[in-house]
Design a protein that fits this description.
The protein is mainly alpha-helical. It has helices spanning 2-9, 13-16, 27-38, 60-67, 70-76, 79-84, 92-104, 115-134, 142-154, 158-165. It is 57% helix and 0% strand.
Length: 173
Amino acid sequence: MLRLRALGTIDRMGESFFELPGSYHPFSDRIQAERLVNEPIGRGGYAYLREGDSTFSVPPAMAALLDGNLDRFAGTVPRKYLIDRHPETIPVAFRQALVLYVRLTTHPILSYQDEATEANYRDFISRRDSIRKQFPRDVKDAERAERNLMSDDFYGTYWFYYFYECPDRKFGL
């Protein structure tokens, strides 16, 4: 939660959040952490807020990404990113989530195209498929091997988080 707040204050939350291990936790843990971050120190919290600062909460689009809820993300992604149409101005995690959303949703409520991110996603899927041929699902520890091998090239991407780390999702789809 403190990492989210720190990245949020410099407008880098969607750009850098998924790059480090241990940055994300289940929803219930985030709710408790959010309470502690906003609770004054005198009452057992971690609120190091300056006079006049408002309380902190995770932006809805980022909360949806952390929960692995792409439908909610699509409904809460800031419209400024969809209007601009310059992929470099959209945070990396948002670009990756938008590509994933368009790919996995039968009837998406928005459209998004970014050739570079699409190519990276195709590389992700291609690598996953080649690992699954090497380690079929019925082989002992195949899921762990797949996750470890995928992390070599794709750790720090939203796709890796979505398929392998998101606490509310099934492993690797």
